[in-house]
Specification:
Blueprint lengths: L11 E5 L4 H13 L4 E4 L4 H10 L8 E4 L4 E3 L3 H12 L2
Length: about 90
């Protein structure tokens, strides 16, 4: 199965695993805030794992978010995500 790892303008992809408690918590917070996103499980998609490793200095740290401008955030708060999305919207 191929995965589109390029987020649409003004959006992001969350790289996660099924067992990651931080990922589950962040997904619930984003749902509560009405923030939509795509998700890639790095255990099912090796290219996603490669992105996470490159974004985190060799570590497979999740959740890692990949934004449409090419930037990333690792284990961010909802406030940080809202700030980044607002920044993308103003570009």
């Amino acid at each position: 199965m191929s995965v589109d790892a390029n987020p649409a303008a003004g959006t992001f992809i969350m790289y996660s695993t099924s067992w990651c408690g931080y990922c589950q918590r962040l997904k619930k917070q984003l749902d509560r805030e009405g923030i939509t996103f795509s998700e890639i499980n790095i255990e099912e998609h090796p290219a996603g794992a490669d992105f996470v490793i490159n974004a985190n200095g060799g570590n497979q740290t999740v959740p890692t978010l990949h934004f449409s401008d090419g930037s990333s955030l690792t284990n961010p708060s909802v406030i940080q995500i809202k700030e980044r999305l607002a920044s993308l919207a103003s570009e």
